[in-house]
């Protein structure tokens, strides 16, 4: 196991990059703690796989260093980094049995036969394939082959880190939930450093202790699921995390009040001057329909999703989403929306602005 340090790291696929726009990964400095479970989350093309390949040694960064513990591994090949990697599409030896596929990494390292047998059977149970361990991999379904690939990545107990690159793409939804649960159990038992790449927020939030959100080649926030939900550091995090995502409205900030289309919205904290493009962000969970206070809105539709209702409303051409409890009444006179002041975030040019002080506190 290892602490992973990314120091002044950046990468461009061009031989002579001229500016930030030429970099697939913008400059970053991060420390990922030994034994942590991390998820790299972002939309396609944001740099997740590039970063994972740099950590694994499949790609050398254009600048900066990668350290495992105190060892600089920037120029070390993958084989010397002592990692396991599971790819998006299964890599399986069709002519081997499931058992032999799982045992392959251990036999390569000349482990004891009894240990190999016990370890393979344990992993076989974990991935739900104990009944077919002696069957050839040829002819198995794509999701079965991916389970073999996952199992082979997890069979070693002595690795510095296990890297997963969108490993559940071909797995059916029920098995995805089961395997994520099993991965969490394995992490608690063995405390491997695990890095899990995905574009699926549910996978990221249920797997990871900390989620690393990437946007346009940058890490825009690293935090716990609660931190990403309550205090998104960037508007992309607010939009990408949550269903529906955060409501964002252009505003002018004056102290503890945001002015939005001529309406005053009280904030739960005071702010100094906010330059650039100022916006307020509020989660639909912290917005409520009213008949007497708040911003005037036009209701467009109500979606009943079982546990709650999603109210789609419009404010000066901008969509506002409100989450209402399942039993909440929505009357024709409820044409305003109010926000919980203490749950409003303020942004300048997409980055969160720290408040000068909570109301009632010294700034």
TrEMBL record:
Give the UniProt keywords, A-Z.
ATP-binding, Cell membrane, Membrane, Nucleotide-binding, Transport
Domain called ABC transporter: residue spans: 4-241
Q: Name one GO cellular component term.
A: ATP-binding cassette (ABC) transporter complex, substrate-binding subunit-containing
InterPro entries attached to this UniProt entry: AAA+_ATPase, ABC_transporter-like_ATP-bd, ABC_transpr_FbpC, ABC_transpr_MalK/UgpC-like, Mo/tungstate-bd_C_term_dom, NA-bd_OB-fold, OB_MalK-like, P-loop_NTPase
Q: Which Gene3D superfamilies match?
A: 2.40.50.100, Nucleic acid-binding proteins, P-loop containing nucleotide triphosphate hydrolases
Molecular function terms from GO? ABC-type ferric iron transporter activity; ATP binding; ATP hydrolysis activity
**This protein's record includes keyword ATP-binding:** yes
The similarity annotation says: Belongs to the ABC transporter superfamily.
Protein known as: ABC transporter ATP-binding protein
